[in-house]
Amino acid sequence: MEPKIRIRSITREKIEEDFLASVFGKFFIEVSSLAFFTLRFFKEVLKPPYEFNELMKQSFLVGYKSFPLVGITGFIVGLVFTIQSRPTLVKFGAVSMLPAMVAISLIREIGPVITALIFAGKVGSGIGAELASMKVTEQIDAMQVSGTNPFKFLVVTRVLAATMMLPLLAVLADALGLLGSFVGVNLRGHVSASFFFLQVFQSLNFSDLFPAIVKTFFFGFAVGMIGCYKGYYANTGTEGVGKAANSAVVFASLLVFLLDMIAVQITSLYQY
Amino acid sequence: MIENAIPITIEQDPVQNGSVVVKMVHLRKSFENNHVLRDINLVINKGENLVILGKSGTGKTVLIQCIVGLVDCDNGSLSIFGTDISELSEKELIETRKKIGFLFQSGALYDSMSVRENLQFPLRRQQHSIPKEKMNSLIKEALENVGLSKAIDKTPAELSGGMRKRLGLARTLILKPEIMLYDEPTTGLDPITSKEISKLILEVQQKYNTTSVIITHDMECARLTADRIVVIKDGMCEAEGSFDELKNSTDAWIRSFFE
């Protein structure tokens, strides 16, 4: 009986060891591969020829086409946040603080993060699926054969467009979120627009706005980069397209939270 | 077993007199433990139509991907127009690629672009300052060559399988390549359209004096287009000859392709 137990024990250890090696191995391979992909982006972005036309086209597709979704989401978030916060503030007799509280929360945190998550869902998955399907149907190879650098044409332009457009979308979401908040305040009472927005702007400082906008550049870069990476290195076959789109959203969303956590730590160092 | 194989010796190297455009010597390529190309020795002469036959998975597509530089070979040498491509810089490789056309099995058309834009794309990439009038006339000519003049404003999704192949061919031909690589040009097409594509390949070769490498499983296409056929088995050139020579081969395995 003893040898049997020994064999079972060794086998289980071996399986666990292999499993851990496989999980960590895959993780480190993925991280290093993404790091090389990012380094290649910085190498290619500075090298001529520059793809201005494609950059403009991608900025239109990534930015302008996301305006309605981001705008509606921002408005609803502002409205709902105001309605949900009001009872608690009423309980403490601080309902007059509602515009200031909503403004600071929206501008500093909720606006940029919600916009980045919506952006990851729409743009990140779109880029991932598009590039993966181009790979599956040999369109990337066709580009390479015709003397075009596909990395420069497809990846650099999309990442730059995402990096430039997300801050604009976040500002739009913030503005419409405040409008939603104004509507929310007026559902249960009457506050004039001038008074509401005066309260909002009096409560905001440059130190609220600046870090919030800066971090959206990083969010946009992360979403664009992850979408391109997942699409560019997708497995062949239609299954690869679905996986690329799905993992682009998952990883980009995760990275948005991770970057937000780092940004908050950095800004808190000099704010308080 | 190698039948009628062309011996490649330095002394008789036809690259020197310009008649050979592609030369492979002891070419090898593996993907991890999968040894796709084991030892390929092959010369492709200027202006000829070379058909490559072989079972699926024997490395035919990898072979032409090596020619165009989409896949790097592990060992051996591959010369195009007398230059070893492993010695080329990225810029030189792009210049060499401009002389090579590649018709992909799927057509590899850009889905987000119209037929016109699919043809404009390679032109704009290679000839940055091309006037609009010249570009339009080249597009018109390329579409007329493949009989697709009326489809200029359609999108690839609106085209049939045969039309997609023809558009892929037009997109490649618009750059007037010296070497054309066809990856299974008639796969998935009905016999009539297949014959049309085969005739088109011949017309292209005669009109532009291109060198063509055609990978196919379609014996009718091979019969119509081939000046010379090479059969690949287990990553090596197993046999070589004309259509009739290989059809009447003493090797039953080679004959089985033609039955």
How does this structure look, described?
The complex is a heterodimer of chains A (272) and B (259). Chain A has helices spanning 2-46, 52-62, 67-91, 98-136, 139-145, 150-187, 193-203, 206-232, 238-271. By secondary structure, chain A is mainly α. In chain A, α4 runs parallel beside α8 (206-232). Chain A is globular and about 65 Å long. Residues 1-8 of chain A have low confidence and may be disordered. By secondary structure, chain B is an alpha/beta fold. Helices cover 35% and strands 25% of the residues of chain B. Chain B has helices spanning 60-68, 90-97, 115-126, 132-145, 161-173, 191-208, 219-225, 243-247, 252-256, and strands spanning 20-31, 34-45, 49-54, 75-80, 83-84, 100-103, 179-183, 211-215, 228-233, 236-241. A 6-stranded mixed β-sheet of chain B has the order 6-7-8-3-9-10, with helices on both faces. In chain B, β7 (179-183), α6 and β8 (211-215) form a beta-alpha-beta unit. The longest helix of chain B is centred in the C-terminal third of the chain and has 18 residues, at 191-208. Chain B starts with 19 loop residues before the first strand and ends with a helix.
Overview in brief:
The complex is a heterodimer of chains A (272) and B (259). Chain A has 272 residues and is an all-alpha fold.
Walk me through the topology.
The complex is a heterodimer of chains A (272) and B (259).
Chain A (H helix, E strand, L loop, with lengths): L1 H45 L5 H11 L4 H25 L6 H39 L2 H7 L4 H38 L5 H11 L2 H27 L5 H34 L1
Helix pairs in contact in A: 2-6, 3-4, 3-6, 4-6, 4-7, 4-8, 4-9, 6-8, 8-9
Chain B lengths: L19 E12 L2 E12 L3 E6 L5 H9 L6 E6 L2 E2 L5 H8 L2 E4 L11 H12 L5 H14 L15 H13 L5 E5 L7 H18 L2 E5 L3 H7 L2 E6 L2 E6 L1 H5 L4 H5 L3
Parallel strand pairs in B: 3-8, 3-9, 6-7, 7-8
Antiparallel strand pairs in B: 1-2, 1-4, 4-5, 9-10
